[in-house]
């Protein structure tokens, strides 16, 4: 009976939002591995899941992804020591001509993650608070400040790209 309830919850509520959440943050293979780890943690704590369970599961997924990324960094350091050739260069994630991606990339990682939870996952400040393990008030304040910093960063990126300012409906 417990297994059937868990499988229904995973199928109907958790798996697709968690898969999208993870694929927006890492490559598909890592996302699938981390999704498995996240669902295992949800199964182990099934009797303790809050209602609604998705924000809590996002928090678990963030922690599992952080663990996977730490593990990957350790493996890369080891491979670099063993390899006789230079390690491959990392690809740039954000296209240089996309002001939003560039601005988001220039933010503090905590601000960027907060904005992704709000914009990509469409979480409320209360749900974001659950994911991040903070109070709803703190999440709301941090979100407000992060949005302001993003707005400023977009302005700097656009100004640096040679965009002219507009004043009173006329080019300035």
UniProtKB/TrEMBL annotation:
The lineage of its organism: Bacteria, Bacillati, Actinomycetota, Actinomycetes, Propionibacteriales. The keyword Calcium does not apply. Residues 18-74 form the RNA polymerase sigma-70 region domain. This is Sigma-70 family RNA polymerase sigma factor. Signal peptide: none annotated. Belongs to the sigma-70 factor family. ECF subfamily. SUPFAM superfamilies: Sigma2 domain of RNA polymerase sigma factors, Sigma3 and sigma4 domains of RNA polymerase sigma factors. InterPro entries: RNA_pol_sigma-70-like, RNA_pol_sigma-70_dom, RNA_pol_sigma70_r2, RNA_pol_sigma70_r4_t2, RNA_pol_sigma_r2, RNA_pol_sigma_r3/r4-like, WH-like_DNA-bd_sf. One of its GO terms (biological process) is DNA-templated transcription initiation. CDD domains: Sigma70_r4. PANTHER family: RNA POLYMERASE ECF-TYPE SIGMA FACTO, RNA POLYMERASE SIGMA FACTOR RFAY-RELATED. Keywords: Sigma factor, Transcription, Transcription regulation. It comes from the Bacteria. Residues 98-150 form the RNA polymerase sigma factor 70 region 4 type domain. GO terms for molecular function: DNA binding; sigma factor activity. The keyword Transferase does not apply.
């Amino acid at each position: 009976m417990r297994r059937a309830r868990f499988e229904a919850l995973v199928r109907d509520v958790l798996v697709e939002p968690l898969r999208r959440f993870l694929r927006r943050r890492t490559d598909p293979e890592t996302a699938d591995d981390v999704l498995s780890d996240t669902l295992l943690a949800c199964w182990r704590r099934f009797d303790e899941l809050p209602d609604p369970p998705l924000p809590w599961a996002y928090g678990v997924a963030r922690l599992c992804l952080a663990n996977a990324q730490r593990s990957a960094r350790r493996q890369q350091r080891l491979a670099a020591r063993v390899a006789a050739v230079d390690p491959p260069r990392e690809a740039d994630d954000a296209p240089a001509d996309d002001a939003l991606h560039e601005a988001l990339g220039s933010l503090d990682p905590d601000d960027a993650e907060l904005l992704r939870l709000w914009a990509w996952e469409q979480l409320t400040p209360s749900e974001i608070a659950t994911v991040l393990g903070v109070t709803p008030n703190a999440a709301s304040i941090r979100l407000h400040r992060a949005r302001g910093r993003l707005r400023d960063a977009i302005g700097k990126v656009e100004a640096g790209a040679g965009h002219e300012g507009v004043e009173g409906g006329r080019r300035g």
